[in-house]
């Protein structure tokens, strides 16, 4: 099924009268991974998640059936992110959850806010072990899920922000990573609960960057001066 799932999804999107949701979602989500050999379990979960990600667009079609499978997709993705140790599986689970949230209405997401709270700690750990070309995924996930539960994100921000600032300092010019970080910082600055952490960490961090540039380009006016903030 994995070979054809994207083609099937595109066809169903263009031909909504052709309803094969039951076939697709049941085939993907009914697998009992507990009986799969350990050596294959991670691969099969990852492949199933990839296929599930590919057909998330179908959740908007045939609304009644979509609701039936939406909960299963969410549970499967959250469980994979929280319980599977493989980094690659956690990354595709994160990608699936991001796409899932974009296909659902805000009130539906709020109704499942406790499920999204489970993934915040795994996402924080994923910042440390994801390869550089994929670390934007947990960052994008934080930005996406911040809209669901601001209070929980506010509690997490003091733990997450130092990691994000280090990433920004070292890799802000790496593809989409810098822009994803800036978008997240802008969003968190709008939350009263998050604002103080940026006053304490982000502003001094930016001053360090400016000061480094200031010292690296001396001239007659600044070579003996120390850059500082004025009250």
Question: Would you kindly provide a written description of the structure presented here, covering whatever features stand out?
Answer:
The structure is a single chain. The chain is mainly alpha-helical and 231 residues long. The model has no long low-confidence stretch (mean pLDDT 75). It has helices at 5-14, 21-29, 38-54, 63-83, 87-103, 106-111, 113-118, 120-129, 136-145, 150-171, 177-189, 192-200, 202-216. The protein has a domain at 1-104.
SSE order and pairing:
Layout: H1 5-14, H2 21-29, H3 38-54, H4 63-83, H5 87-103, H6 106-111, H7 113-118, H8 120-129, H9 136-145, H10 150-171, H11 177-189, H12 192-200, H13 202-216
Helix pairs in contact: 2-4, 3-5, 4-5, 5-9, 8-9, 8-10, 9-11, 10-11, 10-12
| Unreliable stretches covering 5 or more consecutive residues | none
Helix content: over 70%
The largest β sheet comes out as: none
Radius of gyration: 22 Å
Structural class: mainly alpha
Strand content: under 5%
Between the first and last Cα atoms, what is the distance in angstroms? Answer: 63 Å
Number of contiguous helices:
13
Short précis:
The protein has 231 residues and is mainly α. The protein has helices at 5-14, 21-29, 38-54, 63-83, 87-103, 106-111, 113-118, 120-129, 136-145, 150-171, 177-189, 192-200, 202-216.
């Amino acid at each position: 099924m994995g070979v054809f799932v994207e083609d099937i999804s595109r066809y169903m999107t263009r031909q909504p009268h052709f309803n094969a949701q039951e076939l697709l979602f049941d085939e993907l989500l009914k697998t009992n991974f507990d009986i799969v050999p350990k050596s294959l379990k991670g691969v099969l979960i990852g492949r199933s998640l990839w296929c599930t990600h590919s057909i998330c667009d179908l959740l908007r079609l045939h609304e009644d059936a979509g609701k039936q499978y939406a909960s299963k997709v969410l549970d499967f993705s959250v469980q994979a992110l929280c319980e599977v140790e493989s980094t690659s599986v956690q990354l595709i689970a994160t990608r699936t959850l991001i796409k899932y949230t974009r296909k659902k209405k805000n009130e539906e997401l709020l109704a499942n806010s406790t499920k999204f709270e489970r993934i915040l700690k795994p996402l924080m750990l994923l910042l440390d072990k994801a390869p550089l070309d994929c670390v934007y995924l947990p960052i994008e996930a934080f930005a996406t899920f911040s809209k669901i539960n601001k209070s929980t994100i506010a509690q997490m921000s003091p733990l997450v922000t130092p990691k994000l600032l280090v990433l920004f300092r070292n890799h802000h010019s790496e593809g989409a990573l810098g822009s994803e970080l800036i978008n997240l910082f802008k969003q968190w600055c709008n939350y009263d609960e998050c604002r103080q952490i940026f006053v304490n960490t982000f502003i001094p961090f930016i001053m360090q960057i400016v000061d480094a540039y200031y010292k690296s380009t001396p001239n007659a006016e600044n070579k003996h001066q120390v850059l500082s903030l004025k009250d």
